[in-house]
Amino acid sequence: MPETTYVQLKSQMIADIANGDFKPHDRLPSQRELGKQYGLSHMSVRRAINELISEGFIYTFPGKGLYVAEPKQEAEMGPLVSFTEDMKMRGMTASSRVLNTEIVGASTMLANMLQIVVGAPVAFLRRLRLADGEPMAIQVSYLPLALCPNLFGHDLAHESLFAILTDFYGLHLVDGQRSVEAVLATEEEAALLNLTLPAALVVSEQITYLVGGAPIEFARSVYRGDRYRLRIEKETRTRR
Q1: 219: containing domain
Q2: 189 pLDDT above the threshold of 90
Q3: What pLDDT was estimated at residue 56?
Q4: What are residue 210's DSSP bridge partners?
Q5: 208, 217 in Cβ contact below 8 A?
Q6: Whole-number mean pLDDT of the chain?
Q7: What is the number of domains present in the chain?
């Protein structure tokens, strides 16, 4: 059977999802039903389904069938857009669950990233980030304590970290450098994000800078691969 046949099935299913004929978490026809409806072989249907799964349009529960996936979000549209601001722009309510807070001594790697001396006190913050109550990401942040003393005295479960740094500490964030990679979730990450293993994650690492060029934060954010794609926008701002 020509390859265009399986491509046509895939395109039709994408169009049906985009048009709202199938909504997020709706159950889709089985592979056998699709093959009968479109006159396709099992191999052709399976190829279309596999590509739709890998591209994030649908997902499967073994033994239960095929379902429409939630549309993927563009994660944090710029290096200086916080998770809270990002969700607000999408019409969603952001919240956090604080998993860990600790004051640690800067390792050699952290000292290099944050431009501080080895052993200097660093605020370590690990949070589960949620949108409308659904877990979306796990974020770990390291900040030089000298620039934000008593950081843990703030309500980090409900306040934006960037807003605290700007409004309370009077710090001016001007730039960010980010790198991105894809990884597989660990058991702990999958449990926190309500994922079934094996599960793909999108990982973003970012250093955020202040006016004058001093780093204020090194952050590692782990996003659900089934809900996010990262769009990297280049921001060029003059550091004074």
Answers
A1: 73-230
A2: yes
A3: 72
A4: 173
A5: yes
A6: 84
A7: 2
Is 211 among the domain residues? yes
Residue partners of 153: CB distance under 8 A and separation at least 6: none
Q: Out of 68, 84, 114, pick the residue that ends a domain.
A: 68
Helix (H), strand (E) at residue 46: helix 42-54
Of these ranges, 4-18, 28-42, 139-153, the one predicted with the greatest mean pLDDT is 139-153
pLDDT at 216 over 80: yes
- What is the per-residue DSSP string for 95-133? EEEEEEEEEEEPPHHHHHHHT--TT-EEEEEEEEEEETT
Higher pLDDT, 86 or 152: 152
Q: What is the pTM of this model?
A: 0.65
For 177-196, the DSSP string reads EEEEEEEEPPHHHHHHTT-P
Identify the bridge partners of residue 4 per DSSP, sorted by sequence position.
none
d(CA 199, CA 216): 32
**13 and 37 together in one domain:** yes
Is 240 within a domain?
Answer: no
What is the C-alpha separation between 201 and 137, in angstroms, rounded? 9
